[in-house]
Design a protein that fits this description.
Structural class: alpha/beta
Distance between the termini: 52 Å
Order of helices and strands: HEEHEEEHEHEEEHH
Largest sheet: 5 strands, mixed
CATH superfamily of the largest domain: Periplasmic binding protein-like II
Oligomer: single chain
Strand content: 15-25%
CATH architecture of the largest domain: 3-Layer(aba) Sandwich
Helix content: 40-55%
Strand order of the largest sheet: 6-3-7-9-8
Number of helices: 6
Number of domains: 2
CATH class of the largest domain: Alpha Beta
Shape: globular
């Protein structure tokens, strides 16, 4: 948005400049040819460019800089507000992990209240790709892996879960994210609801992306200290 009074500021500055030179408004001051002394002679009186003209130019520059900052501010503030709104609107997915140690997939820390490992890093990468936030919560393995599941407390599970047939009665599974002995096959689990199906589809799409762009392999190397021989 351009400020309505912007041109007025410029005209006032120009008039102030003419007034300091002793010229009436609207009259253009034209320098004559410089004499041998190097001084410039003006129409009504003599001025040295290093004197009053330097001051005039400094004020003009200051005005233009301030005006530019003002216009830039008008453009930047709405954009920043929009970015903040988009960030604030990102959904948060509650992810259940196990507080039972199963390295390198789950490694409990902070007295079992948090965990780190392959699963956490992979879920974080998937969330970044899909555009949602993640809140990790730790639970006992028995609560996660047996009926009716932990769906009263989380939206999905990332705890090295094997998609065994008996679990499909109370869990929906993603595509495999790990399939190497002795640990695989492993998949993320979701509740058997419409919301669970939608989240599972979102995670599957992002999982394919992180496999294709090399992120999955980087996480594998971080936790297994060797390059993967294949990607599930």
């Amino acid at each position: 948005m351009r400020p309505a009074r912007g041109p007025v500021f410029v005209l006032l500055e120009a008039d102030a400049e003419r007034k300091e030179m002793g010229q009436p408004r609207g009259r253009r001051v034209v320098p004559r040819q410089a004499p041998a002394s190097g001084r410039v002679s003006w129409d009504d009186h003599h001025l040295e460019p290093r004197g009053e003209m330097r001051a005039v130019n400094k004020r003009r520059t200051t005005l233009l800089v301030c005006l530019g900052m003002f216009l830039a501010g008008l453009a930047v503030v709405p954009a920043a507000q929009g970015a903040a709104a988009n960030c604030a609107g990102s959904p948060t997915v509650i992810v259940g992990t196990s507080n039972d140690s199963y390295p390198p997939f789950e490694i409990p820390i902070a007295n079992g209240t948090k965990s780190i490992g392959f699963d956490n890093d992979l879920v974080t990468a998937i969330a970044r790709q899909a555009g949602f936030k993640v809140e990790f919560r730790t639970f006992a393995w028995g609560y996660i892996a047996t009926p009716p599941g932990p769906w009263a407390d989380c939206d999905m599970v990332a705890a090295a879960v094997t998609p065994a047939p008996f679990r499909r009665a109370f869990m929906r599974f993603s595509d495999l994210y790990f399939d190497e002995p002795p640990h695989g096959p492993l998949a993320f689990a979701f509740p058997k609801s419409r919301a669970g199906a939608d989240l599972c589809a979102t995670v599957n799409a992002a999982l394919r992306q992180v496999k294709d762009d090399g992120t999955w392999a980087k996480i594998y190397i971080k936790w297994f200290d060797v390059a993967p021989t294949s990607i599930p």
